[in-house]
Amino acid sequence: MGAMPSDRITELKKWVSELARKPEERGTARLNRAIELISANFAVRPHEVAILGLTSDGKSLRFLAPENLCAIGQVPLSSTRSVAARTVREKKAEMINHFTMVPHASVFEAVPIAEDQPGEAIQKIMSAPITIGPRAIGVIQVSRKGRTASNAGPDFTHPQLQELKTIADALAPCVLVVGEK
Fold it and tell me: What is the number of structural domains in the chain?
């Protein structure tokens, strides 16, 4: 596992710039393509990639993807147990390969992935801020879920965290757009 095949990042950037040119195609469904590229890159399942955007009042984050979490509610930026909120507050990417040991808001993990699939515990997670200039406007998280850390898959690595930051930068124009409902 080396660096991200640059063609995926290139494809992601191309897709983002196309999206920015077609306002009628904006919306959460359009993030699905990004989710596909990102999950393929990190060898995770699509529901293990989450993108959250800042609400218009700037006080909370809301899920833009996966779609099953979009209606669930919001994460207050003031939350001390939310990795996503901390990522935005500190504008710092982080990687936690022993996530079950870390106190966190597990409400979203309990949401069923699909009707026949119960939610799973997040075992490992990478979280990177999505920024435009000095402002954090959202967060992208890639997780590995499973009953145990070992069956969730390999640990995330520092090069992967760097890749996630690159992806977060590429996604920024989309997230700003998507957040404007």
Answer: 1
